[in-house]
Every structure is written in structure tokens, then in C-alpha cells.
Amino acid sequence: MVSKIEQDHQRFRQIVRGKIRKDLRRFLSRGDLLGREGGRYVSIPIHDVDIPTFRYGDNSGVGMGEGEEGQGVGKGQGGEQEGQHVLEVDVSLEELADILAEELRLPRIQPRGAHRITTIKDKYTGIRPVGPNSLRSFKRTYREALKRQLAMGQYDPDNPVIIPIKNDLRFRTWNEVKKPQSNAVIVYMMDVSGSMGEEQKELVRLEAFWIDTWLRRNYDGIESRYIVHDVKAAEVDKKTFFSVKEDGGTRISSALTCCKELLDGHYDPNEWNIYLFHFSDGDNSSDADNKLCVKMIQDTLLPRCNFFGYCQVASAYGSGSFYGVLNESFPGGAADELGPRLITSKVGGKDDILESLRTFFKAGR
User: Fold this and answer.
1) Alpha carbon of 119 to those of 7, 148, 178, 179, 223: distances in Å?
2) Which region, left, alpha or beta, applies to residue 353 given φ > 0 means left and ψ of -120 to 50 means alpha?
3) Where are the alpha helices (DSSP H) in the chain?
4) pLDDT in tens, 213-262
5) Cα–Cα distance between 364 and 299 in angstroms, integer?
6) CA Rg, the chain, in Å?
7) DSSP letter (8 states) at residue 77
């Protein structure tokens, strides 16, 4: 049986869920999504939804201290406009990913082939009369003692003292259970040359948050790695990735080379599902480097990853040419039996992020 308070709470969560789904695009476009770094929850501001509370009768007047009965509190005239109620609701990342999937009609991702790691976990499976004190089951021990005292007529309900003896002791037992664990790594690469300003980095930050949220819903284990580049590339931590300010030109092949070295050193494609995302305004140093990038993606990166996603963010200073280079070089996205392996999208503003996510993950790979 579900209690009344649990029914009310479930109904309240359904209302919140519907409100989030309805306004999902608005949360992105206005930057209202407030993430708690390193946590499993995010705070979502919801308008015009009140937390259920007790409501009391008329409490006008002064309760204690100086003043006469019925005297108002405060000075000046009260406002006549209705206030806007904003409620911040904590939503788990798993629930947020499910809302995203419902809104975009995303299929669950099917991990590639045998790209799984088997972990061994201890699972408690039973009770036995011998074992170490650390595994003693107090509940089962006292149950045995109570059964013994009842059978021997030693239990006094007026003085319910239960004293276990050695034969009453019970201990938990366990077995080692092999559990397949799907693992994935996300490698984010971003152009931080002079043409990528704060507006472009904010678009990347929001899109990366949703990418992370969706992939973590589909895999048991996720690692995220970050690479920044101008004419040179380097791996950095997450904070640096979204805050670094650089200048100068762009050589995209430097990021792809850094990515290859990272995968070579840490991520065997037979054990990991690999997702690669590159964010840029589309500028590159030369046609020669464009050709080198195409060759590296074709020969080195696509064969080992689930897919390669290129997201081009609009910039007043970027030519946007690399988007065309990829689409011309990989017609149909270099598709295999599961669909396109190289997927491109354009984000001109925050309103485009949801559609970009749909483009990346609609194939379910």
C-alpha cells in the first residue's frame, strides 16, 4: 500500500517533471539550468509551482512584544502586484536524462559488441550459524533467541528480556557475483583560438552538460577527458577546459593527434565505448590541415569509436568551413550497419542545443 503522503509526493514530482519537460528549451536558452559540479543532482528553477505546506488561519496582529492588538506590522503601503513564485527543485541526473529522452524521443544506446568490462561484487545470499563477528546478523540472532525462549517457556512478556546464547548466533554469507559493466569514455575537444569567445564557450558548456547527462544514463561507468587547442593541443581538466582563454590561430589536427595518443595510452576499443566530440567555429589553418584531419578521422579515430561528433558553434570571426569539409569528405556520415559514424551539427544559439543533441543521439549508437 502506498501512503497518502507518498501519493501526494509522487503527484508533486509528476507536476515538476511535466513542467521541466514543457520548459526544457527555455531552461537552456535562458541559462536557467544550475548544475552542482561533481554531484548527482541539479537545481531546476520552476515558476508557479508551490511546495505543499500547512496553511493556518488568520494570524493578523502582533503576537508578542510592544503594540496593541490588531496593530499592523511594518511601515508603508503594501504592494498590489502578485509576486512571482520561483521554486528550485532538486532533480537527479538520471531523471533529467529520462526527461531529455522523452522530449527528443531518443532511443537507448546499445553498447558496441563486446565492449564491456566484468566487475566482481560481493552479494549477501544467506544466513549460517558460524562466521566472523563483522558479519553477525543481529536481527536473525535475536529472532533465534526469541524462538528458543518461547519454546522453552522462558519468555516473559511482562519482562521481555532476550539474551542470545552461542547456538542462537547467525551470520550473513555471501557469494562473488560477476556483473557486466558497460563503460564509456567521452573525449571533448575544443578550439580555444582567438575567434572562440565567451559566448561560444557557454554554448559548448551547455551542450557538453547534456551530452554527459545522456551518456551517463546509458552506461554504468563514464570517464570524461578534455583537450583544448589552438595551433597546439593539450589535455586539461574540466575547469580549465571551460575557462581557458587563448589567442592565435587554429590547427585542428593537433587536437586529433592528442586525442589519438590519449586513446592509445588508456582506452582499448575492445573494452571501452568511445565517444569523441569536437567543438569549433569552423576555422582551420590551411587546406592541407583539413586533408590531414580527414585522413586521421577516417584511418585512426572512426574505426575505434562509437561515433565522432563535430559541433560547429556560430562566431562572427569564424569562417565555418570545417563543417563543409567533413560533410563533403564523409557523405552519409561514413555510415555502417548502425547508421552514421561521423555526425555534424550546427549551434547558432542556445535554442539550437536540443536539436543538436537529437542529431547526435537519434541513431542510438
Assistant:
1) 37, 42, 6, 5, 16
2) alpha
3) 4-22, 24-29, 93-104, 138-151, 198-218, 238-243, 252-266, 287-296, 321-329, 353-361
4) 888 888 877 889 999 999 999 999 988 998 887 777 899 999 999 999 99
5) 23
6) 29
7) P
